[in-house]
């Protein structure tokens, strides 16, 4: 078995990743499948941090466009991420993984408060850490929260889960002539307006030289496969 290049990784999951074929909510089978993929990372000796979105339940930006106060809408979106984090925690615990949910907004009945040193300590003890409620601030996406947490906790790379196998110049599910980029720098992403992450998150990664790997979550074993490829010097 090839040794992974990275010791501590941050996995960014969108809320939509939990939908499966549903239009709303959480598909338990999809959550169980994601949990099994994460378990494979743990078997490689990798410390795993997860930041999860809430778009399958409530998306703050969309609600604000429809007329809701943006700050209120974003806080509601943060609560949605906590629900997703608890669902993933439960699925991971079912397969005998130790997990802690750390929330950026105070919900002590269901999650620990996010404290940087506490998160690091959990990782050092072999636990999976799920960071919920984004950054705890309105007007910032969970992409930005992922970049922030990865830098705070000392992650070596961000793994961005998508429904396609990389970064394209346009949506490959809508356009057959979409071009796949094998490798990009962050300025290319910003200058070309590529929607892999929002501009604040991309800028944070660029300024701090934090690698970003985009992969297809729907392909079984793909997370482990990509990390092993990187460990051997291949993409």
Can you offer a commentary on this structure?
- The protein has 235 residues and is α/β, with parallel strands linked by helices.
- It has one domain: 3-Layer(aba) Sandwich (Carbamate kinase).
- It contains 8 helices and 9 strands.
- The chain has helices at 28-43, 60-65, 70-94, 116-124, 142-153, 186-191, 199-207, 222-231; strands at 8-13, 47-52, 99-103, 112-113, 128-132, 157-162, 167-168, 180-181, 212-216.
- Strands 4-3-5-2-1-6-9 form a 7-stranded parallel β-sheet, with helices on both faces. Strands 7-8 form a two-stranded antiparallel sheet.
- Strand 1 (8-13), helix 1 (28-43) and strand 2 form a beta-alpha-beta unit.
- Helix 1 crosses helix 3 and helix 5 packs parallel to helix 7.
- The model has no long low-confidence stretch (mean pLDDT 89).
Tags for this entry?
single chain; 235 residues; alpha/beta; Carbamate kinase; 7-stranded parallel beta sheet; two-stranded antiparallel ribbon; 8 helices; 9 strands
Portion of residues in beta strands equals 15-25%
State the helix count. 8
Number of domains: 1
**Class inferred from helices and paired strands:** alpha/beta
CATH class bucket: Alpha Beta
Our measurement of the CA-to-CA distance between the termini, rounded to an integer number of angstroms, reads 17 Å
* Range of helix content: 25-40%
The backbone outline, from C-alpha atoms, is globular
Query: CATH superfamily membership, which one?
Result: Acetylglutamate kinase-like
**CATH topology group:** Carbamate kinase
Order of helices and strands: EHEHHEEHEHEEEHHEH
Low-confidence stretches: none
Tell me the radius of gyration: 17 Å
